[in-house]
Design brief:
Keywords: Zinc. It comes from Herbiconiux aconitum. This is PIG-L family deacetylase. By secondary structure, the chain is α/β, with parallel strands linked by helices. About 35% of the residues lie in helices and about 20% in strands. The strands form three sheets. The protein has a seven-stranded mixed beta sheet, sandwiched between helices. Strands 9-10-11 form a three-stranded antiparallel beta sheet, covered by helices on one side. Helix 2 runs antiparallel to helix 8. It starts with 11 loop residues before the first strand and ends with a strand.
């Protein structure tokens, strides 16, 4: 059987919108790549300062200026659990275009739409990631890419997984950068998204992709990195809690910890 990790090449670049996304959606794959001595770079778009906080001792951080810095610390702990991939925040060196002052892209916030997908909250700051001009975001991602010479871009699908506007912005920038560099783009297949079909089995599109070889399946029981992924997720204490083989989000949504991570090669 062909090792699915080979498809990412020798220096994959993961684009994520907020701290915790890297662990929930791709943590096992990142850990497996690092175990195989493949250097991984993670670029995080925001500090997640508008995230909802799980009930408990950290709940008082929600809506305050302290949440963003706290989540930066959680991210550092999570990256340590995954094996210390290279990391940068969008807008800060090396992920800032030459000649531009560093900036902080703020979390755009979200609300749940009637269709079960996230949508823009309606009160995003002018400094938010989702409202930043796409060409500016692309230039910043390119600046980081020129430093690492990535072999592949890995980020969200066109809907941002479950619809978050910051996810969509990172997808749009990642696709453009991958096209300019002439490298593959892999979209994360998000099993929590409504209609994905992955909780119970592949939907039609994913099944077709599996047949033609465009769908990568990284089985964490085979890579031996499920425990690392779980520890990394647990580091994001403001955002989720681990309960056995499930995790619980701030809205009390309970999901299984993914033992398989799927990626769809877009081009």
């Amino acid at each position: 059987m062909t090792d699915p990790l080979v498809a990412f090449g020798d220096s994959p670049f993961f684009l994520h919108a907020h701290p915790d996304d890297e662990s929930i959606s791709t943590g096992g794959t990142i850990a497996a790549l690092l175990r195989n001595d493949v250097p991984v770079t993670i670029l995080t778009g925001t500090r997640g300062e508008r995230g909802e906080v799980v009930p408990g001792e950290l709940e008082s951080l929600e809506g305050t200026e302290l949440l963003g810095p706290h989540r930066v610390g959680e991210l550092a702990d999570a990256l340590g659990a995954l094996g210390e991939p290279a990391h940068a925040f969008l807008g800060a060196a090396p992920a800032r275009a030459s000649g531009r002052p560093e900036r902080v892209y703020s979390d755009s916030g979200m609300r749940w739409g009637a269709d079960g997908f996230a949508e823009a909250a309606g009160d995003a700051s002018p400094a938010s990631l989702s409202l930043a001009p796409l060409d500016v975001v692309v230039d910043d991602v390119l600046a980081a890419a020129f430093e690492t010479r990535p072999s592949a871009m890995v980020s969200y699908d066109a809907q941002g997984g479950y619809g978050h506007p910051d996810h969509v912005r990172m997808h749009d920038a990642g696709v453009e950068v991958a096209r300019r560099l002439g490298i593959p783009y892999f979209a994360i297949v998000e099993p929590r998204a409504p209609g994905s079909g992955l909780e119970a089995g592949m939907n039609d599109a994913a099944a077709d992709a599996r047949t033609d070889g465009a769908l990568l399946e990284v089985d964490l029981t085979q890579t031996g990195t499920l425990a690392q992924k779980t520890r990394a997720m647990a580091a994001h204490r403001t955002q989720l809690s681990i309960d056995g083989d499930t995790f619980v989000l701030s809205g009390v949504q309970r999901h299984p910890i993914g033992t398989v991570e799927w990626f769809l090669r877009v081009f």
